[in-house]
Specification:
single chain; Arc Repressor Mutant, subunit A; two-stranded antiparallel ribbon; 72% helix; HTH_MarR-typ; DNA binding
Length: 158
């Protein structure tokens, strides 16, 4: 019984930070998949970042995107399908290769990707300014170093 009491005490102490991390992950996940408006166009962050990624890497495949975004091919295909249906992206097959579909943005998609980039520059600048007011620049650098290590840890587990 004493052993379980010790475990409970350790658990209570250790989970304070872990719970904060879980809350951040959940809130950020909800933020990513919420609808955002860019120039009267509604997209979630996954869709707009996928569009921008295709814009910056013309000819990328859905398989390549699935590896980059750590999503299933099916999930990426659904996102790409939404972008195609909305007129932002088109699939093209290269000569002598009908199997592999390459992704390219349309002019409409290119314009929206540029609007998104401007939005992100302003948003990231504003968020960084807020964080630097609350924490030091060194704290922020440490946070990103820790985040980089955490990402490496999670990638190693998959």
């Amino acid at each position: 019984m004493d052993h379980f009491s010790d475990i409970s005490k350790m658990y209570e102490k250790l989970t304070v930070r872990a719970d904060m991390l879980y809350e951040f992950v959940i809130l950020y996940h909800n933020y990513i998949y919420a609808q955002h408006t860019y120039e009267a166009e509604n997209c979630n962050m996954m869709e707009i970042h996928t569009l921008t990624y295709i814009n910056d890497r013309p000819g990328i495949t859905a398989t390549e995107l699935s590896k980059i975004w750590h999503k299933s091919k099916s999930a990426i295909s659904q996102t790409v399908k939404k972008l195609i249906t909305a007129g932002y992206v088109e699939k093209k097959h290269l000569e002598n290769n009908e199997k592999t579909a390459r992704l390219f943005v349309t002019e409409k998609g290119h314009q929206l990707a540029n609007v998104h980039k401007a939005y992100d520059v302003a948003d990231i600048t504003q968020t960084t300014a807020y964080l630097v007011e609350q924490c030091s620049e060194a704290d922020l650098d440490a946070f990103y170093r820790i985040l980089e290590q955490y990402i490496g840890l999670l990638k190693a587990e998959t």
